[in-house]
Amino acid sequence: MRAAQISEIVKKTVPEIQDNEVLVRVHAAGFRHSDLQVLQGQFEIGIREIVLACSTSHCAGCNLTRRTTKRLDPRFCDKRETAGFHHDGAFADYMVADPDTIVRLSPSLSMEQAARLMGPWTSERSIDLTNGEGVAATVVCTDAGAANDFALKILRVRGVMGALGLLANGWHFDSSAVVFKEITIRGTYVASRQAPERMMGVLQTAGVRSHATKVPFEGIP
């Protein structure tokens, strides 16, 4: 099968799966900030893209989430395995996934749209659309410090900012905006399975679509 490793296309055998795994035929994969960081040499990983798998269910992280949420959440497993980092990911014809972390797509959603939906965005229009009050929440998934500043700027009082980007020199926030507007900053990197399932429901109901630039496999940087 074909596989994209950082900046070159290689040939690999179709992966074999274990009894608790699923072999996924990949039709489209999104390019996001962590992929760009790989190209810039900030991470040394394999075939890109992320799917989480829990390698154990008896660590402190698993015990805590099981006790507090009544379910196992592989995102917080102390020994989690991440495709695209520890194992090959979705920039290939096939990939191996954990059945507990995959989501069924809405029948009205194209493969390209599904891949694109994992990249949130913000806009200057946000202020205009809220009569100057600001937005309730922003999500920043880039390693650009200016994006964090902009996200704080457009938040309303007691808004919430989701910080996903891994900045090479660490996060730096405008403390006055955080303090005087009583803003909450929440860090996250990968959504739970329940979050994209809820998102699929919203997309199906509201018909939300995003702009997507389609790049053929051979055009992967």
From TrEMBL:
Keyword Zinc assigned: yes
Domain Alcohol dehydrogenase-like C-terminal: residue ranges: 124-200
Gene3D superfamilies for this protein: Medium-chain alcohol dehydrogenases, catalytic domain, NAD(P)-binding Rossmann-like Domain
Cofactor(s) listed in the protein's UniProt record: Zn(2+)
Oxidoreductase is among the record's keywords: yes
Listed GO MF terms: alcohol dehydrogenase (NAD+) activity; metal ion binding
Pfam families listed in its UniProt record: ADH_zinc_N
Family matches, as InterPro entries: ADH-like_C, GroES-like_sf, NAD(P)-bd_dom_sf
Keywords: Metal-binding, Oxidoreductase, Zinc
SUPFAM superfamilies recorded: GroES-like, NAD(P)-binding Rossmann-fold domains
A GO cellular component annotation in the UniProt record: cytoplasm
Family annotation (PANTHER family): ALCOHOL DEHYDROGENASE 1-RELATED, VACUOLAR PROTEIN SORTING-ASSOCIATED PROTEIN 11
Protein name: Alcohol dehydrogenase, putative
Organism expressing this protein natively: Metarhizium acridum (strain CQMa 102)
